[in-house]
Design a protein that fits this description.
The chain is mainly alpha-helical and 288 residues long. The radius of gyration is 25 Å and the shape is elongated. Bound molecules: zinc ion (2 copies). The site of one zinc ion has 5 residues, from loops.
């Protein structure tokens, strides 16, 4: 997909990009371009998922539902919509102006020269590292009892999440946990704005997929984050590396196995106790 994007970009991109640069100043391209691209990407996926959730169309996709007993309703969407719009217009939009200032300080993010596949590949690795570190530790911080009640509890309203709930959260959480880890990598690596837009599209699509409630073919597995919404104390990170390192990784299968092991241990302990304690029903007579 990335190579198709870059093939397209290098065939038709230079002319298109130079016409954009000739038509708009940086102060418009960076903040407004970033905001518009994230809006289009977000509502594209969320609209498709709303049709799947609410109209149950296509019905055949419902076999991929992760928690089939929890069926999304209009009320779930209505509740999320207002918070999502607030996060987009009152948090993400001002943040994109901050991003413009930061990117400008680091270099020229709207250069005429387009990023190459090599640029993207090495920068993508950096972005993933920053995202994993930023999201994991930010998310764990918000699970601290003092912060959880005030901030993160809102995002955990959906124990069986839906796509739009990816950014159903407190504005502070949206800025610290969602926007900063996503934008920090491109700022640190002095990326081209087109690389940032591609990364935002990938990151946002992944966040929606993680909350969509369906394990759809060809898409990365959303099971880890879906499970986080169910049990709260597992799978804090987006990649799973830090969860593995901090022993916070979990799944429904692991929980079922653990339950079975505990049950087997309890049954064994009860059998041992019965073997040691003498049967009081029998007369306790010493044989001579
Ligand atoms: Zn979530
Ligand atoms: Zn959480």
């Amino acid at each position: 997909m990335t190579s198709v994007f870059f093939g397209f970009l290098h065939l038709y991109g230079p002319q298109f990009w130079s016409s954009i640069l000739a038509s708009y100043p940086k102060s418009v391209i960076i903040p407004w371009g970033t905001f518009i691209i994230s809006q289009v990407g977000f509502w594209f996926w969320v609209s498709l998922l709303a049709v799947l959730d609410l109209c149950q169309f296509p019905k055949s996709f419902w076999r991929y539902k992760i928690q089939p007993l929890k069926v999304p309703t209009w009320e779930w969407y209505r509740k999320a919509l207002w918070v999502v719009l607030q996060n987009q217009f009152l948090v993400a939009l001002p943040s994109s102006f901050l991003l413009w200032k930061l990117m400008d300080l680091r270099g020229n993010p709207v250069g005429m020269e387009l990023p190459t596949v090599w640029d993207l590949s090495k920068e993508l690795i950096g972005f993933l590292v920053v995202e994993e570190l930023g999201f994991y530790y930010g998310h764990r911080l918000f699970h601290h009892p003092k912060l959880y009640k005030r901030i993160h509890k809102k995002h955990h309203l959906y124990t069986a999440p839906i796509g739009i709930a990816a950014i159903y959260c407190h504005p502070i959480e949206h800025f610290v946990c969602n926007l900063c880890p996503l934008a920090l990598g491109p700022v640190l690596m002095k990326s081209h704005i087109l690389t940032l837009w591609l990364w935002i599209t990938v990151g946002q699509t992944n966040a929606i997929n993680s909350h969509c409630g369906f394990h759809l073919p060809l898409f990365p597995s959303p099971l880890a984050h879906d499970y986080h919404h169910e049990v709260f104390n597992k799978n804090f990170g987006p990649l799973g590396v830090l969860d593995w390192l901090h022993d916070t990784a979990g799944s429904r299968e692991m929980a079922a196995e653990k339950k079975q092991r505990e049950l087997a241990a309890t049954t064994q302990a009860q059998t041992n106790v019965q073997a040691v304690v003498p049967d009081s029903s029998k007369p306790n007579v010493k044989e001579v």
